[in-house]
């Protein structure tokens, strides 16, 4: 009788855990979808004001506010997903943003359909399916006390020490030798992103437990993790924007997605033991799903040319950043006009790529002609 009761409890908890994981996956997909739609709505608002030569500030546009509200809802969904699902699952589902933007570019912005877009979207969707199917189903929310015990375990302490050391080495090397390398910038983003993911998952889980009746708001770790989440999110924007200012978006976007996702998966494995209990086949299929997502993002974002006309506002790869709060916050900045005082200023801050050889040569010829 006792064994039967234990069996029922175990099967019930496993069913609840699986249900929560699917809820988290749905929240992540919906959140990223809303973020993608919101960015394009805000772009449409700026484009409309530019075409009408309106002097009204974009903050007075109802369409712009609709976009902002959708972005906030998307961020809430993305954040909440970490409280229901493993971080190793939520992070790769950032492909939803890339897929949605590719579809919006074709349907609403009238961009031509490219074979590589269809191929990339197909790979990304198959990858997302494998991620959800083969992700760990043994997932539980952690209280502040349980989280404290996880943080004291030696594998995480070693991982944290190595991450901090690598971050400091990269930062010093970049500052001392003035390195303009896309991998260096995005490694800094990924290292910060792993801490953002760890802290976001902790804060989201503790909020869920609190809403369930067991308050965690009195535990000091809740506030420590909240500060870490906000600080690392803000710091990511700096290095991400540095990368976008120096390199083409077609290079930055897939590289950032791969490095950020890998860092999120590793941090979830080390701290939250998210691969614990999985079979070799399940781990292989999960990682295969990640690889398909990486390849899909590469094909969708590659060979896209940024429209240089000031009278058109087209979707660019500068906005195709999957990830958590910091990455979407940089998107919010990217779709606002440079001139904050007037909406009639039609220069939109699509983050500039590195100047090409032709443009540099043209500039030199103009200087010579002027002299």
Task: Outline the structure in words.
With 371 residues, the protein is an all-alpha fold. The chain has one domain (1-324). The chain is 73% helix and 0% strand. It is built from 13 helices and no strands. It has helices spanning 2-52, 62-84, 87-90, 95-107, 115-134, 144-151, 154-177, 182-211, 220-246, 249-272, 280-301, 325-334, 357-370. Helix 10 runs antiparallel to helix 11. The longest helix is centred in the N-terminal third of the chain and has 51 residues, at 2-52.
Q: What is Rg? A: 22 Å
Overall shape: it is: globular
The residue fraction in helices comes out at over 70%
Low-confidence stretches: 1-16, 306-323, 325-330, 339-361
Secondary structure class reads mainly alpha
> Average pLDDT value?
78
What is the element string, with H for helices and E for strands?
HHHHHHHHHHHHH
Would you count the extended β strands for me?
0
Strand content range? under 5%
Task: Note the total helix count.
Answer: 13
How many angstroms separate the termini?
Answer: 96 Å
The main β sheet shows up as: none
Q: Tally the structural domains.
A: 1
Organism: Pocillopora damicornis
Transmembrane segments: 20-42, 63-83, 89-109, 118-136, 156-175, 182-200, 220-239, 251-272, 278-300
GO molecular function, one term: magnesium ion transmembrane transporter activity
Family: Belongs to the NIPA family.
